[in-house]
Predict the structure.
Amino acid sequence: MIIPNLSDTNRHQELRKDNEGFRSPDRPNEAARDQAAEFEVADTSVQKDLQSYRAPEHRQHPVLPIERYLDLTVPEILEQLDRLDLDMVREVQRYEGTHRRRKTLMVKLERLTRALAAEQRAAGESR
């Protein structure tokens, strides 16, 4: 026969009492209120970050060969790169390198710049 350890039972009851405020929405304790306040502050700061991150309509767009560049995602920008010449690609590359610095886009712009430069050199040599 196994005899339960009474100290474990008492400790279990103490822990249950300590945690009651967290489980009962009717009786929040101080720690639960503090935690809720922290989440409200964090939520507010996240909302402010998102608002500043989005490009509002009144924001002045840079003069780039891709229209509404600031509003586009990386896949949308990648779709439009094929229609640009070397100078235009370099312009986008300079802007991206000094502003958003999105790695996927930077790699693609670098590869495209190299390919267009090689193509331009080859065309110049054949003249």
Q: What stands out?
A: The mean pLDDT is 76. The chain has two domains: 6-53, 69-125.
